[in-house]
Amino acid sequence: MTFIVKLKERLLEPLPGIEAQLKMMSSGLRKNDPEMYQKAAKDAKKACVLLLLFQKEGSWHTVLMERPETPYAHSKQISFPGGGLEDSDADLAAGALRETEEEFGIPRENISLVGRLSQLYIPVSGYLVYPFVGYLKEAPSYAPDPREVAEVIEVKVADLMNPSLRKLTTINTPNGLRLKEVPYFDLNEKIVWGATAMMLNEFSEILARLQEEGHFEA
Which residues fall within 8 angstroms of residue 136, CB to CB, at 6 or more apart? Predict the structure, then answer.
């Protein structure tokens, strides 16, 4: 497909990176340290996530998930499938595919990797996250792991470029912080903020360029 071919080519070029990511960072955090998510701690743990693309009912979609309520930092947040790199993973890409299979039940052999977005350090959990982009020839069926996934959320890719779905809110974090004027994507009535929103915004800027060039149709 032309879109996937052109996307693969675009992901080999210089990426929008930190400038695109910062647009979806809390203004308070941005004032404190505008590159805090770019500075990986020396002992940062590696994690991999997957932005999975597929067509459904004539439109391009991706899929996110709501995490269960837990005592941990990312409780109830909306995220990509993914998690920490394990010793059994051959490389970062293998980790992203394994996590997607474990959490969503999508066989890893069905997923074609397209490329990678810019890495992102998450200070609250100490992970350096490597986001991959993958492609499925058919819309997936899911067998989510209830220990990891409270809800599977399919999202139209075109919604990422809809300015009316970019909003501000106040976030009360599990560790007691109150963040004001936090930018987020309003996707399927879910608040998608933080690192996931930052990675999605970089992807949306890549999409916008492909759309301008006539290589992407919603």
Answer: 52, 53, 54, 106, 110, 111, 112
Full-model pTM: 0.93
Q: Which domains does the chain have, with CATH numbers?
A: 2-211 (3.90.79.10)
Per-residue pLDDT of the chain (218 residues; tens, 9 = 90+): 699 999 999 999 999 999 999 999 877 666 566 666 677 777 899 999 999 999 999 999 999 999 987 656 556 789 999 999 999 999 999 999 999 999 999 999 999 999 999 999 988 888 999 999 999 999 999 999 999 999 999 999 999 999 999 999 998 877 777 888 899 999 999 999 999 999 999 999 999 999 999 999 87
Structure tokens at 174: 């599990």
CA-to-CA distance for 218 and 62, rounded, in angstroms? 12
